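Onboarding guide, step 5: your first structure request.
Type a short instruction followed by the sequence, for example:

Predict the 3D structure of this protein.
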Amino acid sequence: MFLFIIACNNSPSHFQNNKYMNFHTYFSSIAKPVNACIVGSGGFGRSFLAQGMRTPLLNCRVAVDVSAEVVVHAMTQIGIAEDQIRVCETPESALQAWHDGCYVATSDLVNLLGLPLDIVVEATGNPEAGARYAKMALDAGFHLALVSKEVDSVVGPGLAHMARQKGLVMTPVDGDQPSLLIGLITWAQVMGFEIIAAGKASEYDFVYDHETGAMSSNGMVVGLPMFKSFWSLDAEDPRTTIKARAKACHQLPQRAVPDFCEMQVVSSATGFVPDTPEFHVPILRISEVPELLRPVSEGGVLAASGKLELFHCLRKADELSFAGGVFVVIRCHDAATWSLLAGKGHVVSDDQKTALMYIPRHLLGLEAAISVLEAAGLGVSSGGVDPKPTLDLVGKATEFLPAGTVLKMGGHHHSIEKVSPLLVEGAALADDRPAPFYLIANCRLSRDVRKGQFICIGDVEIDTSSVLFQLRSYQDTVFFAS
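The system replies with structure tokens like these:
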């Protein structure tokens, strides 16, 4: 099995060095460590702090969370001595702690704006709080690494435009799928490959036990004794197998908001769009991806080439995981070359017309330093050169929602109960337009929404004074002003 592990972005200098990349050379112009602040000390933030202790060009000893005690807990977990951590709830105390060489824990970024920071890494996962911190960082003259896809999906292109106007960089981060996929897509484009499909695997594989007939995913186990008959693709029409797999696994979640959110961010940077607003999301073994994620005319599921897509990785327990990794399916134009490469373990379709290139990992904060150093040290983004709001992540009611319902965002996937995600063409906010998914999160419905109906701006009570709403209005002015 071929593991295509590479870090790519769209800066010209990166492309020039990419063939024989030496990261010491690439970052050699950075004379001193980049001073970073992490906002949000959950899984991503904690791992960023941990790796920051080991990354020579990165200095990250200030962090923000809902309470300073949460930060202190994260810092002590990764081995920082308590006597080296100071809780600072004023700008003056934070500045003193910084000069004393201590780690700083605080509940608000406003307390850190007087520090000699280069970049703020926003990783709250909270749409409104994330928007507030993102704008605060740019207004203070700091570069912005935007980890919160919830914020990026609503106002990412606007924040990138705002950053450029201030001579700053807004970037997604390696360690999360959007940045890694943007890098892989742009690598393929610069190499001259024809991209048939691009996307990611769902966060959790579908793992099948042939002996017990159990299928498991993210801790959920269902009995599917007949599934072994769907393990191999139908030779006559593999799409029938895909439909049968989806039906057999109906008890397992097959669409998740974060996947849609990440693909929307990628679309803003690359211009690629999905084949359908809901994606096909087939259940595929890794070897089947180049067979099925191609046009219908070639036996696949896509209406055309050059589409974004998601899939669930189907495997046995002892097989390698795709681990929510990213991929491109490319055209094999030279038969002899790809026959040679197939013999070397590359994932090539049976007819050798398409091949899979993929990065089967995302290392959260452990590799985010790459994007942080690029933004603050080299002045380039791991995202698009000039991202555009090509798509909006929106929601559709899966059940009748009466007026007064609070669209509460919750759970690990930051979903909204009884609301399914879709991607539609990007547009300015309007009462009769589907509302951005994370703009309506935690808002109250002002009128009934029928099952199957888009939730529109006019259906919800939105605080127009919120930072997220104001940033979206700014973005609409930039990109949709008539």
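Each response can be followed by summary notes, for example: The first strand starts at residue 34 and ends at 39.
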